[in-house]
Amino acid sequence: MPLTAYDLTGRTAFVTGAASGIGRATALLLAEAGATVHCADVHEKGLHETQTLIADADGTARTHLVDVTDRARLDAAVESAGALHIMAAVAGIMHSSPVLETRDEDLDRVLAVNFKGVLHACQAAARSMIDRGVKGSLVTMASGAVDAANPGLLCYSAAKAAVVQLTKTLAAELGPYSIRVNAVAPGWIRTPMTDRHDADLQQKAEAAMVRLSPLGRVGEPEDIAHAVLHLASDASSFTTGQILRPNGGVAMPW
């Protein structure tokens, strides 16, 4: 069992992007900490695999086949969760293209998921918390990409930078309701998103990240899940409007 400050027994969490990667690891850890976890994603098979993993570990999970770009369905799913204490808005997609070759439709698609999807999730969760008088925590998913120039990642980096500003603005607006809002900005994490390259290119990319990290390794989804748990729990009760950077020391901004 986690320490008392990390105990989520009796609380309800909602995790988007829960079918794989960071979202799945987050759902599993929040359930292990005692929360009832509502898992949302567009990938039905992976979603049910996550639910099974939680059940096998004696946790409690519900699933919602939801696209975060569909505001109405996302709102309905969040409302169906009842009194919500935690929102982990993890769902995201990747797109790579040089700036001069980036099309409007590419940018629109990434912004729809990586920024507006986070916005919609936070709006729905915050309204639920305010209406029910719940002291809650919203955790958004930014990226180490906001701290560096990344050739080819304009769409992704811009969307994640927008998430950072959303996080700070929401923290200022929701503080009077005792709702905390923080972001996690992961470095290179082994997930299906970073595994999109062929094996050789993947190996070279990871090796480059290992060389840049003082810890000499890349991250795993569980590394980020623990950051989310910290921000979701009472252990961070005096923390809001912050960016937590589990990146292996690759970036150390002021």
From TrEMBL:
Membrane-traversing stretches: none
Entry keywords, A to Z: Oxidoreductase
Keyword Oxidoreductase: yes
Cited CDD domains: SDR_c
Pfam family, one: adh_short_C2
Alphabetized PROSITE patterns for the sequence: ADH_SHORT
SUPFAM superfamilies referenced in this protein's UniProt entry, alphabetically: NAD(P)-binding Rossmann-fold domains
Family in the record: Belongs to the short-chain dehydrogenases/reductases (SDR) family.
This protein's name: SDR family oxidoreductase
